[in-house]
Amino acid sequence: MKYKFNHNLVDKNLKKLAKSIKYQTLFGLSKNHGFKRFKNEYDLTNIQFDFLNMLSFQCDISLDVACGEVSEKILTDDIYASAYSYYKMQSYKEKKKEVEKENRVQKSTSKNATTFTDTWDFKTKK
Predict the structure, then answer these.
(1) What φ, ψ does residue 116 adopt, rounded to 5°?
(2) Range(s) of the domain holding residue 38
(3) What is the pTM of this model?
(4) Which of the given ranges, 22-36, 82-96, 109-123, has the highest pLDDT on average?
(5) Which distant-in-sequence residues (6+ apart) come within 8 Å of 26 by Cβ?
């Protein structure tokens, strides 16, 4: 009999681990103090990468709950968490567009005319 890998079961268990206080604490400590999370520090497997993403997501949500930006219900309901994640990503994209517009640099082309450009011009020494 051939064994079939169950991705949904793995994701469910990784989410459960990522929500635990133990792994949240270890994740926070590893970010702040730089100790290794895994034996293989650089070439992470897909499961390790997914687990770190889930830990980071849970850390962000916990921080937002602590700051009062969202209710605690988001910690217990995956649908709310996914919707909040989508909302935050869309808000981030909108803010990024606004910042890009504000960071446009004026470039003088003549004494009377001014145009805008999205790049910085660096003068080279002659």
Answers:
(1) -110, 145
(2) 7-87
(3) 0.61
(4) 82-96
(5) 37
